[in-house]
Amino acid sequence: MRYLPAALGLVILALSPMFGDYLVTVLGFAAIYAIFVIGLNFFMGYAGQVSFGQNAFAAIGGYTSAILTANYDWGLLPAFAVGVVGAGMAAFVVGYPALRLRGHYLAMATLALGLIVYEIAVEWDSMTQGYMGISGIPPLALGGWEILDPHWQLYFLSAIVVLALFAANRLKKSRFGNALLAISGSESAAQALGVDIAYYKLAAFVIAAIYAAVAGSLMVHFVGFVSPEVFGLNMVIAGFMMLYVGGIGSTLGPILGACIISLLPEIFRGFKDYQDLAFGAALILILIFAPKGVASFGRFFARGRRN
Amino acid sequence: MNAMADALIEIKGLTARYGQVEALHATDLHVRRGELVAVLGPNGAGKSTLLRRVMGLVQGAGSVHFEGTPLPVNDPRGCTKRGIVMVPEGRGIFGPMTVLDNLDLGAYLIGHDRAELKRRLEQVFELFPRLKERQTQQAGSLSGGEQQMLAIGRGLMAAPKLLLLDEPSLGLAPRLADEILTTLGHLNRSGLSVLLVEQKAPMALKLASRAYLMAVGQVVAEVTPDQIGSANDLARYYLAST
Fold this sequence. Notes:
The structure holds two protein chains of two kinds. Chain A is mostly helical. Helix content of chain A is 74%, strand content 3%. In chain A, the strands form two sheets. In chain A, strands 1-4 form a two-stranded antiparallel ribbon. The two termini of chain A are 15 Å apart. By secondary structure, chain B is of the alpha/beta class. Chain B has a six-stranded mixed beta sheet with strand order 6-7-8-3-9-10, with helices on both faces. A four-stranded antiparallel beta sheet of chain B has the order 2-1-4-5, with helices on one face. In chain B, helix 7 links the parallel strand 7 and strand 8. Classes of the chains: A mainly alpha, B alpha/beta. At the A-B interface, helix 8 and helix 9 of A face helix 2 and helix 3 of B.
C-alpha cells in the first residue's frame, strides 16, 4: 500500500506515450503545481503556519527566468538560479518581520504580499510588459538539449517532482522536520524545549518560497509565455485546493492533489455548461469522504488490513 | 544561615498578565538545590501561570534569579539553556511524532552529539522501561500514563537542573498517578530539584519538603508537610489566609 502511489505514478508515465499532447500537457502542469504544493505543504502542513502569498515567490522565480532568458539572453540554468535565490532572499526579508504574526494576521500579511508582487508585475511595464506579458521564453532544456516534445517535458518535470519530494521528505524526517512538527503541535511546548521557533518558521517560509520559485520558473519555460495572471490569486486557490484534497501534512498529498485538481476539469469536460458544477460537487464529496485528503485513504486501507 | 543563600531559583514580586488581566500578583518563592517543592491550590489559583511566567511564556513584572543570576526575560529558550525545563499541563507531547522523536526533541539543545543523546536516552529508558518498548510508536497513541511518562522523560532529556512540573497526575488513574509521583521522588532523591504544581495535595505532600499554597493568583502560605496532617488542616490554612 505504501508504494501504491509511486507505482501508480510509474504506470501513468509508462502509459503516457499513448496519451495525446493535450493530456500530457495537463499532466505537465500538474507536475509543476505539485512542486509548488510540496513547498506549501512544508510551511502549512509541517510547520502549521498559513500563507496565501506563495504565488509572490512563484512570480519572482518565473519573471526572473523569463526576463533574463527572453530579454537578456541568459542561459536557462543561471536565470533559474538567480530567480530561486532571489525568491529565497525575498522570503527571508519579508518573513523576518511577517512571521511574528500568527493565524489570520499572518494569512492576511502573506495575501498582501501576493497582491503587491502581482501589482508590481502589472505596473513595471518596462521590465514585465504588464498585462501584455513576456513571450518568446525558451523552452525547458537539459544541458544544451531543448526539450520540445510534451512527453519528454513531462518526464523531465516528473523527475524534478521526485527530487523535490525526496528533498522535502528528507527534511521532514530530520531533526529540522521534527522541530517544525513540534512548532505545529504546540509553539509554547516547543519553545520550552529550547526550539528556536522564529528561526524554524523563517526557514520553513524560505524553503516553501524556494519551491514556489522553482515551480514558477518551470512554468514560464513550460508555457513559453508569462503574464501577471499566471501568478495571480488563481494560483493560490489552486494550490490550497490541491493541498487539502491531496492531504495537508502528508508526504504524497501534494502530488495526489495536484493530479486530481488538474485532471478533474478534464474528466468533467463532457458536462459542458455544468462542468464547474460537477467539479465543485466532486471536491465536496472528496472532502466529505476523505477530510484528511486523498492521501489518508492509504492509511485507512493499511489500518483495515492490520485489523 | 540565610535560607536564600543556597536557593537554586529565587522568585521575587513576580506578576503575570494575560492582556489586561493580572493572573499572578507579586509572588515570592524559592527552591533550594536538591529540593522538591510543591505548589498547591485550587483551579484558577495561578499555579500554572506561575510556571509559565518563570519560563517566560507569559509576560509580567518581578524578578527570577537562577543560580544567583537573573533569568533572561521572556526567553523560554534561554531558560532551557540555563537548565530549567517545564513539563506543561496536558503533557504537551507531539502526537504525530514517535516516542523516540519526542525524546530526541527533548535533547534539542545538545545539537548533534549522538553519544550524549544515546546516554540520555538510556537513562530515560531505565527510568521508564515502557517508553523503550514503545519507542517507535506514535506518541499520540500512548495511554495517558505513558504520555505523562513521555512528557517527563522528554523533560529529562534536556538534563535539567530544575524541573517545573505542571499537574503530572491530571487525568490519570490513582495507581498511575502514584507511579508517576513515586518516580519523581526517585529523581529528586538522585539530586534533581523539582517545582511541582499539583491539585492533589496529599500526593504532593508525600514527596515535598515544603509547599506553597496559592489562591486567587498569589501565595497565601508556606507550609511543611508535617504541618498538614489532613485535608482539614489544608482547608484551615486557606481559610486563615484568604
